[in-house]
Design a protein that fits this description.
mainly alpha, 14 helices, 2 strands, 1% strand, two-stranded antiparallel ribbon, 323 residues
């Protein structure tokens, strides 16, 4: 008798099995891990990365790679801190920060579509520019002393619960991203552009505008993540968010999103993100050194790419055989 779960096996199903396995192992080897209070507390440190992932999945599906993620986060956080140091109210600081991130994304997009340069090359350059601007403005100094009403959002909980206030942002962005990708005409255009930009152009899709909108939206989410990060840690330094770009790109790819575009879904990313967070938190609580954790996650990423390719090839062959 065939087991329905394993018929037409997909990477999402594999991820679900991996997540259940990780939770089970953590529950066995880490005392008190499998409790709602502990799980929600551990999520505090990863919410900003989760927000970035909702931008990266759109970029990758559209056939783009953005290396400037951490640079934009740092520059946006710097602008927020600078506005605060000038005595501007926090709501104005937030608005100006969101505008800054959106403009950074727009700059990336205009350079890419205007000069027809690969996104990885452009964003590799702008990564240095945005990070460099943060160092020019802040030097090696830190800006802190933000009001408690602002930092409480990053460190506090919904009254009467163990749910971090910041966590509210995650399901909202999940719903928005799901709607864009799976229930909107624009989402279909993103998939089409990522799969074949030339054919998309010939079919009447404005490829340049798709890229401009996706990069601008990504910049907006980067600056939102910057605000959440500053709210949580309570200070801004020019080296903030260092290394975020590789970590979140790897997580999205682990979720089954094709790094060269045209394929990916929100549920795969959600499962991958939860799996990575669970693995990191479990290994950290077991006092596994950081260098070993890096090796483990590198091997997991290699495995995920190979396994995902094997599963996709298998499903394509089965589809062809049915025809």
């Amino acid at each position: 008798m065939k087991i329905v779960f394993f018929e037409n096996i997909s990477w999402v199903k594999i991820l679900l099995l991996i997540l259940v396995t990780v939770f089970t192992l953590n529950s066995i080897f880490v005392p008190y891990y499998f409790s709602l209070e502990n799980i929600l507390a551990l999520s505090h440190s990863y919410i900003e990365l989760g927000v970035l992932g909702f931008a990266v999945i759109l970029l990758l599906i559209s056939g783009n790679i953005d290396i400037s993620i951490a640079g934009v986060v740092a520059f946006s956080a710097t602008i927020f801190a600078l506005c605060f140091s000038f005595g501007l109210p926090i709501p104005i600081c937030i608005i100006l920060t969101l505008i800054t991130g959106t403009l950074c994304g727009l700059v990336n997009a205009l350079l890419i579509v205007g000069f027809n340069i690969p996104s990885i090359i452009v964003t590799l350059a702008t990564m240095s520019v945005f990070r460099g601007l943060s160092y020019v403005i802040l030097k090696d100094n830190a800006i802190y002393g933000f009001p408690k009403s602002f930092t409480y959002f990053g460190t506090g909980y919904i009254p009467g619960t163990y749910v971090p206030l910041e966590l509210i942002v995650f399901p909202i962005l999940m719903i928005i991203t799901w709607f864009i990708l799976h229930s909107s005409t624009f989402g279909k255009k993103i998939y089409s552009v990522g799969l074949n930009p030339d054919a998309s152009f010939r079919s009447g899709i404005n490829v340049k505008w798709v890229n401009i909108i996706v990069f601008s939206w990504a910049g907006f989410l980067y600056s939102l993540a910057a605000i959440l990060l500053v709210s949580r840690i309570g200070s801004v330094r020019p080296n903030i968010a260092t290394g975020y770009e590789l970590e979140i790109i790897a997580t999205v790819v682990f979720g089954g999103t094709a790094i060269f575009g045209g394929y990916g879904n929100v549920w795969g990313y959600i499962l991958a993100f939860l799996t990575i967070v669970s693995m990191r938190s479990g290994l950290a609580l077991l006092n596994v050194p950081g260098q070993y954790m890096a090796i483990i996650f590198g091997l997991v990423l290699i495995f995920s790419i190979l396994a995902n390719n094997i599963i996709n090839d298998r499903n394509e062959r089965k589809a062809l055989e049915k025809k």
